[in-house]
């Protein structure tokens, strides 16, 4: 930016109002340069942003890593021009960079992402800012005891998202008084008016009912905004929501409070800029954060023993191994936090709660808040594990998808996978989770078949980038590996092998045991079968699969999952790039299960030992 | 059941209290017979169910299809023993059948499903009953003008789910006074106490803030329950929530109001039955529904023309074809209803709103309610289309999964698919939707590449069973097919073919056009390439793929989706069962996109014409 024409810092109400106009002008300019974007949604919140920057935010843009820095989450991510204009006004980016908005290679994307060092999390899927903000605020208030404030700026349309109310409940119940939500009530959604228009009290009533303090203001009155933010900062014992009446497109008659003006540049930007008083070059001095010590991380007792299970002893559920490992990881590493979807007794996350109650966060039956909080704890440098039934992680699919855009590093565990749960029936069975978690960008997907393997994979998860997922089984499974065995991510285990193998039986989780039994059955038919445990579903062990394909020529792949997007699809990924694929048969859950015992379920789905053996016989016959 | 010992119908408060005890006893017996289940969650709501059956529900169990029948949705689906015990008391099932609970083949599954004719929708994933009930109530109130009441019985734990509050907002705003929610506040969730315990007013405050009428009662006081239900039936202009304080495991000291008793049979069922006063054989006469005429369906103007687009004329976005076709379908069929996630101007569902405003339901930015309402309209015999950006359908993943368990027939359209949207960036790009929708049991997944194809596929969707999904593109694409061309579901189109083809280029949607351009480029290299438009992603055209594999030996598959679970995985499905797979290369979106133009995005992701051509060259070289 041109520092020579930078004025003295913005201080007075009049100067702040001018800053608001500058943010509008710059939003219009950015969208004009891009040829797309959301200037009108930026203009409604410009005065709010101006007051926040000039008077209340405490943030060092040169040192975004400072622990005392406030957190600002723009939940209405489409108002990115406003955020970027604010960064310019704060001296964080240049005017030239502002005008790269939405261009290829620019870090000023259509919706904010953490490619910018001042952005905690990606937004743009509405209703996510508050749940994540709750996680950030919880981390500061309960564990790090840091003085920062978490500011979430959201739109009125997104108040319809259930995830916002999951977060309202959590923040109210946790008395997160360092969390402030500002609702930009500009009355207009994308298609037309919102449900409540400018009925500020409709929002305030709802929010107050969830245990919040609320303030209703004119969102274009600098003094009122300032007073509300001051009140929010001083209010004790409850989070504050500032509900601000604003006008979309404020300041430009051609678009102000008009329908049909969402998500597009103003038609005549030069006129608009003139109407807004022309370009300004105000520079705002954002207050420095309070001195705060970097929270110590990496403590823990390095001598803590991981659980060990006796090979060939009593069978153990991988969910049990999960709970016991989690408790040990919590002792080893003081940055591990656990988030539960009110099923900790079943997932066995409860074992962590028993050992480390202060780092266990009950999110109740609110899976979006569960993952949102995990992302928030990740922002603050913790190593979060979020766990619930794998089936119910589908509730948080959008949060998981967006967590990848946020370059978040979180660990997710889903238990009670597949038909193997038995009698509870299909509502509780995860039969889609591998497809969901594989398709998350940059994810790791692990699926142990025994307790010792689960220990090793869980221990490896926090070192992985991105979203790591472990799928666990409800029922007990035999312990087939030793406590010391290594299971590198991206690897696999050959459990049976012979030079004369005619087919490879591939399983993961419960189907590994079925594949082993099938191999035994096949001996009677004179068929030698290799057995491969594909515990690392993503990344998949391409080398081992190709070796097995070359050696045996045939695969039978069995998975406790619907046929699409799971283990078989992962296997076949290894045979792209022109590499010859083996003949193969896929066994998966093609039917809609009902209630039955686990063994009946596996048989009915055609993924038990007999089904695998029969498929292998047929396949060997075909190839003869 | 043993009719000889059936008593005279339950009428008095005392008899209803006895019926409540019978429902408890039978819940204990069912769980005992099964060896699993949720008797304690059933026992808390037994008195509520008894009063509802004996005094307020209007339902003919012999004729569940009657249009005047009330709808009863057990949102706390784990309390299935209570529901089944109620069915027994109403004479709908025998005592023998009751004791088949959770056994293989029994229609009395662990959680209710519409395998039972009296069950509208599957429950068991909490927080879904109310959103679906809102759809059922909307259909009755706004379109069918039927006198039925929709009763939703939910637990207190599930009030934490955001989906419940999406529904609260919708029901309050729509003044659905024929909808009654009963909250069974038994204080105990699965892991432990709920957030609000027995603070009935905590629930009532929140619910009232959303525009509902509320009544707080002792849920074990027959007279109080009766009075509350009477009040709910007479209250005008707003839905009523009855918030009932109850005790989990009520009536059996060993489990009553005790932690750790969730989801398991009582330890000594015979003692429990004695404590509850032993088995009873009361029969309840449920009131007949009011006479009501079956709503006329199947009307419409059969001469309505479907849109037609000129081949080779101006390019047209498939989302535009969607909107225009939807408007025509609405004229052709009066049972078509459209649900919008407040993006109708972008998805083009708005064109239906313009033509048929009375059948257009704005669900605002609340995708769980969007799909829940669609399922509810489906229950009432409508043909719902729910549409939003494909990326945001991930919010409703659990509802889509459960809709399949419900044997629901709904149509879902997701627009703005893939990196092809351009500048808006990854938060708005669906890159996981094919994986999600393919893995839904029994789904149909369609992905048109041109406007005429979109017309035909949309027209076919309502005739498909289950969940049908169409993926639409934001940008304009060339019109390559004629208006009369047929595109059967499960088919594909060969766009280029020659006996000397060395490779097949497979695309769908935007990549079809890239594949065509790639084929042109390859001519210069002396490579003949077949081009296959795989518009039916599920079911996939196995025959055509095998024919192409035999003819050309090589596939290049290009998709605007993450590599997992999408088009390439669908293609390779055709080469299971031992059928030899072709050598192939997969092109998909491996990177995390930023902002860029659509053309830049396709190039950066490596799914544009040049990338496809290069992959084909390499593959042909490998095979030589």
Automatic annotation (TrEMBL), chains A, B:
<feature type="domain" description="Transketolase-like pyrimidine-binding">
    <location>
        <begin position="316"/>
        <end position="479"/>
    </location>
</feature>
<keyword id="KW-0479">Metal-binding</keyword>
<dbReference type="Pfam" id="PF02779">
    <property type="entry name" value="Transket_pyr"/>
</dbReference>
<dbReference type="Pfam" id="PF00456">
    <property type="entry name" value="Transketolase_N"/>
</dbReference>
<keyword id="KW-0812">Transmembrane</keyword>
<comment type="similarity">
    <text>Belongs to the transketolase family.</text>
</comment>
<dbReference type="InterPro" id="IPR051424">
    <property type="entry name" value="Transketolase-like"/>
</dbReference>
<dbReference type="InterPro" id="IPR029061">
    <property type="entry name" value="THDP-binding"/>
</dbReference>
<comment type="subunit">
    <text>Homodimer.</text>
</comment>
<keyword id="KW-0808">Transferase</keyword>
<feature type="transmembrane region" description="Helical">
    <location>
        <begin position="370"/>
        <end position="393"/>
    </location>
</feature>
<keyword id="KW-0786">Thiamine pyrophosphate</keyword>
<dbReference type="InterPro" id="IPR005475">
    <property type="entry name" value="Transketolase-like_Pyr-bd"/>
</dbReference>
<dbReference type="InterPro" id="IPR020826">
    <property type="entry name" value="Transketolase_BS"/>
</dbReference>
<keyword id="KW-1133">Transmembrane helix</keyword>
<dbReference type="GO" id="GO:0004802">
    <property type="term" value="F:transketolase activity"/>
</dbReference>
<keyword id="KW-0472">Membrane</keyword>
<dbReference type="Pfam" id="PF02780">
    <property type="entry name" value="Transketolase_C"/>
</dbReference>
<dbReference type="InterPro" id="IPR005474">
    <property type="entry name" value="Transketolase_N"/>
</dbReference>
<keyword id="KW-0106">Calcium</keyword>
<protein>
    <submittedName>
        <fullName>Transketolase</fullName>
        <ecNumber>2.2.1.1</ecNumber>
    </submittedName>
</protein>
<keyword id="KW-0460">Magnesium</keyword>
<dbReference type="InterPro" id="IPR009014">
    <property type="entry name" value="Transketo_C/PFOR_II"/>
</dbReference>
<feature type="region of interest" description="Disordered">
    <location>
        <begin position="285"/>
        <end position="304"/>
    </location>
</feature>
<dbReference type="InterPro" id="IPR033248">
    <property type="entry name" value="Transketolase_C"/>
</dbReference>
């Amino acid at each position: 930016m041109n520092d020579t024409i930078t004025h003295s810092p913005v201080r007075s109400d009049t100067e702040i109002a001018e800053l608001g106009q500058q943010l509008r002008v710059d939003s219009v300019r950015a969208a004009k340069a891009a040829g797309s974007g959301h200037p009108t949604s930026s203009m409604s919140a410009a005065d709010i942003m101006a007051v926040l920057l000039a008077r209340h935010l405490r943030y060092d843009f040169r040192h975004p890593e400072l622990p005392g820095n406030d957190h600002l989450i723009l939940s209405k991510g489409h108002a990115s021009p406003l955020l970027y204009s604010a960064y310019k006004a704060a001296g964080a980016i240049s005017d030239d960079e502002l005008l790269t908005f939405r261009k290829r290679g620019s870090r000023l994307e259509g919706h904010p992402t953490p490619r910018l060092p001042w952005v905690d999390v990606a937004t743009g899927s509405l209703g996510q800012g508050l749940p994540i903000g709750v996680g950030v605020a919880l981390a500061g208030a309960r564990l790090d005891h840091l003085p920062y404030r978490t500011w979430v700026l959201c739109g009125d349309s997104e108040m319809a998202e259930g995830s916002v109310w999951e977060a309202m409940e959590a923040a109210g119940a946790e008395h997160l008084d360092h969390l402030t939500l500002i609702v930009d009530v500009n009355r207009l959604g994308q298609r037309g008016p919102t449900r409540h228009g400018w009925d500020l009290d409709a929002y305030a009533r709802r929010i107050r009912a969830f245990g919040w303090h609320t303030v209703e203001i004119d969102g274009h009155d600098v003094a009122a905004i300032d007073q509300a933010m001051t009140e929010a900062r001083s209010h004790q014992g409850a989070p504050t929501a500032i509900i601000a009446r604003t006008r979309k497109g404020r300041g430009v008659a051609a678009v102000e409070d008009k329908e049909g003006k969402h998500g597009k540049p103003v038609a005549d930007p030069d006129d608009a800029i003139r109407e807004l008083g022309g370009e300004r070059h105000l520079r705002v001095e954002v207050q420095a954060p309070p001195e705060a010590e970097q929270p110590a991380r990496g403590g823990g007792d390095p001598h803590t023993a991981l659980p060990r299970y006796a090979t060939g002893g009593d069978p153990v559920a991988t969910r049990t191994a999960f709970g016991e490992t989690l408790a040990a990881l919590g002792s080893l590493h003081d940055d591990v936090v656990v988030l539960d979807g009110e099923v900790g007794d079943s997932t066995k996350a409860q074992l962590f709660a028993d050992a480390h109650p202060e780092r266990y966060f009950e999110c109740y039956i609110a899976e979006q808040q569960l993952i949102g909080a995990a992302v928030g704890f990740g922002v603050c440098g913790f190593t979060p594990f979020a766990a619930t039934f794998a089936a119910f992680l589908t509730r948080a699919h959008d949060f998981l998808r967006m967590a990848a855009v946020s370059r978040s590093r979180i660990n997710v565990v889903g238990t009670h996978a597949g038909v193997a749960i038995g009698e509870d029936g299909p509502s509780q069975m995860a039969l889609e989770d591998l497809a969901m978690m594989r398709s998350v960008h940059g994810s790791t997907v692990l699926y142990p078949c025994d307790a010792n393997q689960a220990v090793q994979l869980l221990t490896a998860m926090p070192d992985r980038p991105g979203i790591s997922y472990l799928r666990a089984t409800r029922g007990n499974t035999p312990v087939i590996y030793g406590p010391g065995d290594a299971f590198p991510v991206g690897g696999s285990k050959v459990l049976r092998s012979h030079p004369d193998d005619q087919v490879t039986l591939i399983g993961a989780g419960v189907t590994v045991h079925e594949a082993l039994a099938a191999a035994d059955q096949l001996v009677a038919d004179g068929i030698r079968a290799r057995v491969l445990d594909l515990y690392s579903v993503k990344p998949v062990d391409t080398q081992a699969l190709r070796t097995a394909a070359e050696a045996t020529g045939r695969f039978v792949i069995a998975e406790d999952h619907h046929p699409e997007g799971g283990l078989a699809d992962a296997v076949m990924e290894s045979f792209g790039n022109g590499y010859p694929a083996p003949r193969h048969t896929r066994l998966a859950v093609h039917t809609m299960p009902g209630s039955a015992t686990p063994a009946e379920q596996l048989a009915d789905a055609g993924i038990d030992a007999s089904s695998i053996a029969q498929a292998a016989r047929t396949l060997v016959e075909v190839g003869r």
